[in-house]
Amino acid sequence: MGTLIFFLVMGTMLVVWPQVFSPISKQKHRERLQNLRSGGAENFFEERRSLETYRPESGPLVWRRVLGAMMIVVAVTLLVLPRLTDGG
């Protein structure tokens, strides 16, 4: 039952809010870089250089939504399959 709940919750979150699973948003990246360019202190050695070099992932969120939809299908299958094998 725990697997079913996990797949339903995670699948729904991926379909509705796929950006939640992004490690860093473009906006946070842009704000932090702007802060460093205006004289803010770095949290670690060469933070500014790493932010300028490595941009956040800009791929479409559609693949996360597809994964979420697949997880929902698996959850529904896990819910329905035992009832089909028992004869309804």
Q: Mind explaining what this structure looks like?
A:
By secondary structure, the protein is mostly helical. It has four helices and no strands. It has helices at residues 2-16, 26-37, 47-53, 62-85. The longest helix is centred in the C-terminal third of the chain and has 24 residues, at 62-85. It is rod-shaped. 8% of the residues are buried. The mean pLDDT is 86.
Anisotropy-based shape: rod-shaped
- For the report, how would you describe the main beta sheet? none
Count, helices: 4
- Please give the oligomerization state of what you see: single chain
Strand percentage lies at under 5%
What attributes does this structure have?
4 helices, 88 residues, mainly alpha, 66% helix, rod-shaped
What can be said about this structure in brief?
This protein is an all-alpha fold and 88 residues long. Helices cover 66% and strands 0% of the residues. The radius of gyration is 20 Å and the shape is rod-shaped.
Describe the secondary-structure layout.
Elements: H1 2-16, H2 26-37, H3 47-53, H4 62-85
Helix pairs in contact: 1-4
